[in-house]
Amino acid sequence: MKKLAQLLFLLVLAMPAAAQQKPQYSQYLFNNYLLNPALSGIESYTDVRMGTRRQWVGIEGAPVTYYISGHTSLGMSDRNSNLPKAGKGFVPKMPVNNNRANKFHKSRPHHGFGAMAQVDKTGPLSNTSLNLTYAYHHPITKRINMSVGMAGGLVQARLDGNAIHLANQNDNALQPGQLTKTKFDLGLGTWIYSDIFYVGISAAQLLTDKISKNEGMNTLQQELQPHFFGTAGYRLRLRYDLSLEPSVMVKVASPSPVSVDLNMKATYANRIWAGLSYRHGDAMAALAGINVNYILDIGYSYDLTTSELNGASAGSHELIIGLKLQNKGRLLCPQWLW
Q1: Other CB atoms within 10 Å distance of the CB of residue 24
Q2: What does UniProt give as the signal peptide span (predicted)?
Q3: Which has more pLDDT, 327 or 14?
């Protein structure tokens, strides 16, 4: 009976891995580049983000994710570097700390380049991906900009047979050792943005044939399922130092159910922000972050599980650290990725 329960547990783990494979994030509000390569080089500085997520704390073998991403622009000079600097106090001397930056409502035509690496581990299964990204940005009106981008790289799936412990160690159903398979990955995206709204559509894992490289055991059959993301957000200025930013994200990754996130974030003085997120049928999340200075920012979120796993899980934790390198304009808050 114990052996059967363990095998069923492995099947439960393996099924979502084969159907979904892309990690789950709540802090994509802090780094939409994870979902859409068209954001490559959107800012005038080099944007580096590092994050980790521990999902369903309290459940053995639950997903754990780590990632690092970075992107920068080419041919986009900082037109704000010669303007007067914003006040150093907590509440800026100017109406909003970045108003000097938002004086320019359109982005100059430029290229963006970036890279991201992700490791997602669920029990004995792990997925590791490395992608390079490119985007081209161009204004389409005096206030609205558009970018198109693509991502290409490798995805490696691994099953660690040594991490599987059965009641009968002589059972030949699963052999010890590791199965490793690697395939190419392709993603596309577009992003329309201004200083008060954004709309984006992207697709990931478009090369859907079975993972091709096989070493060791040959029992794991895993395909990369295409993922499609739609995102939109709006910034509503309530007063000179306070704004509300409602947003929505829709994810389609068949055969998994469609996932819809409804988000509301409040930002004060372009320095502190907090928000709530509702993921239908899965979780509610509380998010918070601070732009410490013009180089460092930090974000954290806690997900309260609302699915059937609620009784066994103590929720999910996610932490992200951002660096704004070569920030010549000394922008406290991102100009376009608010």
Answers
A1: 20
A2: 1-19
A3: 327
CA distance 265 to 125: 34
Q: Is the pLDDT of residue 137 over 70?
A: yes
Question: What secondary structure letter does DSSP report for 215?
Answer: B
Number of domains in the chain: 1
Distance CA 105, CA 122 (A): 44
**Which pTM value belongs to this model?**
0.82
Q: Residue 170 phi/psi, 5° resolution?
A: -90, 0
Distances from the Cα of 285 to the Cαs of 234, 271, 274, in angstroms?
Answer: 20, 21, 11
Domain contains 336: no
Residue 330 lies in a domain: no
Cα 286–Cα 290–Cα 291 angle in degrees, nearest 5: 145
- Please check whether residue 239 lies inside any domain of the structure: yes
Enumerate residues 6+ apart whose C-beta is below 8 A from 99.
Answer: none
pLDDT at 163: 66
Residue 115 sits at the vertex; the CA angle it makes with 203 and 294, to the nearest 5 degrees, is 110
- According to DSSP, residue 271 is labeled T
Q: Rounded CA gap, 170 and 194, in Å?
A: 62
Residue 272, classed as helix, strand or coil, is: strand
Tokens 């999910």 — which residue? 316
- Which CATH number do you get for residue 105? 2.40.160.40
pLDDT at 106 over 90: no
What was the pLDDT predicted at 166?
58
Residue 333 lies in a domain: no
Strand pairing category for 125-139 and 64-74: unpaired
In this prediction, residue 85 carries a pLDDT of 46
Instruction: Report the 3 state secondary structure along 60-85.
Output: CCCCEEEEEEEEEEECCCCCCCCCCC
List of residues 6+ apart from 185 with CB closer than 8 A? 129, 131, 151, 152, 153, 154, 155, 204, 205, 207, 224
Domain assignment of residue 53, given as a range: 2-325
**Residue 218 pLDDT class (50, 70, 90 cuts):** very low
Whole-number pLDDT of residue 118:
97
Q: Average of pLDDT values for 117-139?
A: 95
